[in-house]
Specification:
about 525 residues, alpha+beta, Deoxyribonuclease I, Chain A, 2 domains, 6-stranded mixed sheet, nucleotidyltransferase
Length: about 525
């Protein structure tokens, strides 16, 4: 379902406080951290302050530098917030649930980058850090490399560069500041910091503006509002809020708790449209008309849902979903759709078979599909199986069949009459499962599972049962076919093989077995 989330002035929030709210830390103190109870308390204070700021400003992305790290994660951040760190753990990006499907690009020594798809185009956000004791050109070179790969795409960079220059608040300039200024000019970046802004850093009477925000793209820069938040701090660093007029189309596939009742209300709503749905299905004389009627049927059932808020199934995995694109292709330019298509093209190679099958057999006239056929199939349908994109699971479909059997009976017979499997029933949600022991950065290391609409699955079962009945009746299946047959399995094949080997041993003959494993066999079958 296409749900638009209008962020307006609530798009980007940056947490730029060094030490992630570590009170009393000097701005130039970069000695290795030693985990103490004091650090832990400071971390908890910083986290509570961040949550308070989050509730007030509702950010989608938080960028941070020099945070408290514990076991490879920013300490105290809720598990529902995804996070990515630079290789030195000094720069990080936190993606909140309100940010729809970010794509992790890369992490370098001093920076990390994430891409977001918005309705106004692609946006890449980069968090970077440069220690005052290190050569700043190392960080600037990393940023240059990322920007080169991105081309003309919109970019927001938030960096703690420890560089002094008058245009962002300092009274004097240093060499690092001049190098940053040259970098901005060469890359044609727009600085968001304001000269007269409150200090970002304050400690024992000293003030500083070490944290910089700059963008790529004139229109984007003009749409951004930058300000220092002085209300949320228990540290020597303040938060910086960046607000941008951006919006996202959020594509989510809802699931409802249909196992807990509420069916009566659903059936009452659907009953008002039953007559209209049956009439539209009966009047469908072409495949296009039937496809339209199928969509209306799916929408009518979904619109009748009284099951409350949808919920998301949480999948525990080693890698957040946003990292999958990075692992499977190292993308920089391009959008999430192009990344996904690249994966699908490798998992499902294009077919080069002829459009028309070489041998066309005359169609055999079959009797109409009966209500009993539908009832028997739905009776055995598993109620805990995940539904397709239309959110209609077997529980709901059984309720529809019990109360309005004419809807499904008319629909399936119309499909049979037009020799058509409606296009809307071919759309599925593809979920990738990592194969144990396989390399995570190889596309072939993932097993695709497609979640299809249950209405189409029932039609599949009707056709499969009729086909199997005909094949069995005419005795055309080979006796050595063990797979995909009711009452037979690979156990039968192994048993037959063992018998042949035993028979050869009894006859004092040698036996040689050749086992063939065809990679991606089903991907290359000529289904037509």
């Amino acid at each position: 379902m296409d749900e638009k989330l209008q962020y307006g002035y609530r798009e980007i929030c940056q947490a730029m406080r060094r030490g992630y709210g570590a009170a009393g830390r000097n701005s130039t103190d970069h000695s290795p951290q030693v985990r103490t109870s004091s650090d832990s308390r400071k971390s908890k204070i910083a986290t509570s302050t961040l949550l308070e700021a989050r509730n007030s400003h509702n950010p989608s992305i938080i960028l941070a530098q020099e945070t408290y790290i514990l076991d490879g994660r920013i300490e105290g951040i809720p598990r529902s917030w995804n996070q990515w760190l630079s290789k030195n753990n000094k720069a990080g990006i936190i993606s909140l649930p309100s940010c729809n499907k970010p794509v992790f690009l890369q992490s370098t020594v001093n920076s990390t980058a994430l891409k977001i798809q918005t309705e106004q185009g692609l946006l890449t956000v980069i968090s970077a850090y440069s220690s005052p004791y290190k050569n700043i050109m190392e960080t600037l070179q990393e940023l240059h490399s990322i920007l080169t790969d991105l081309g003309d795409e919109r970019v927001l960079i938030c960096a703690d560069l420890n560089a002094h220059i008058r245009i962002w608040g300092y009274a004097s300039e240093d060499t690092r500041g001049a190098q940053v200024e040259d970098f901005l000019l060469v890359q044609q970046l727009f600085l968001l910091n304001k000269t007269n802004s409150p200090p970002i850093f304050e400690h024992r009477g000293r003030k500083g503006w070490p944290d910089l925000s700059f963008t790529k793209g004139t229109d984007f820069a003009n749409s951004c509002i930058w300000k220092v938040l002085e209300d949320y701090t228990h540290s020597d660093h303040n938060y910086i809020l960046k607000e941008a007029l951006l919006s996202q189309s959020r594509y989510s596939y809802p699931r409802f708790k249909t196992a807990y009742g509420g069916h009566r209300r659903m059936l009452q709503h659907l009953g008002q449209k039953t007559k209209q749905l049956v009439q539209q299905i009966e009047e469908s004389n072409t495949k296009d008309h039937l496809a339209k009627a199928t969509e209306e049927l799916q929408k009518a059932i979904f619109a009748a849902y009284p099951y409350g808020q949808s919920y998301k199934a949480v999948v525990k995995n080693k890698h957040p979903p946003a990292e999958l694109f990075k692992q499977l292709g190292n993308p920089s330019s391009g959008d999430t759709k192009s990344f996904a298509l690249k994966i699908l093209q490798e998992l499902y190679p294009p077919s080069h078979s002829p459009v028309t099958p070489p041998n066309c057999f005359p169609l055999i006239q079959e009797p109409q599909i009966t209500k009993n056929e539908i009832r028997r199939i739905l009776k055995k349908a598993p109620t805990k199986k995940a539904p397709g994109f239309d959110a209609i699971d077997y529980i709901v479909l059984k309720e529809v069949k019990n109360s309005f059997p004419e809807i499904l009976h008319t629909f399936y017979n119309k499909c049979y009459q037009l020799h058509c499997f409606p296009e809307p029933l071919k759309k599925g949600i593809i979920v990738l499962f990592h194969k144990d022991g396989k390399e995570a950065d190889k596309i072939k290391s993932y097993r695709p599972v497609t979640l299809l609409p249950t209405i189409g699955k029932v039609l599949e079962q009707i056709l499969l049962r009729r086909l199997n009945h005909t094949l069995k009746k005419k005795n055309v299946l080979h006796h050595n076919q063990f797979g995909f047959r009711e009452g037979r399995s690979t156990d039968d094949a192994i048993h037959q093989l063992v018998e042949k080997i035993q028979d050869s041993k009894n006859k004092k003959l040698h036996t040689m077995v050749i086992s063939l494993d065809i990679q991606g066999a089903f991907d290359y079958l000529q289904y037509n």
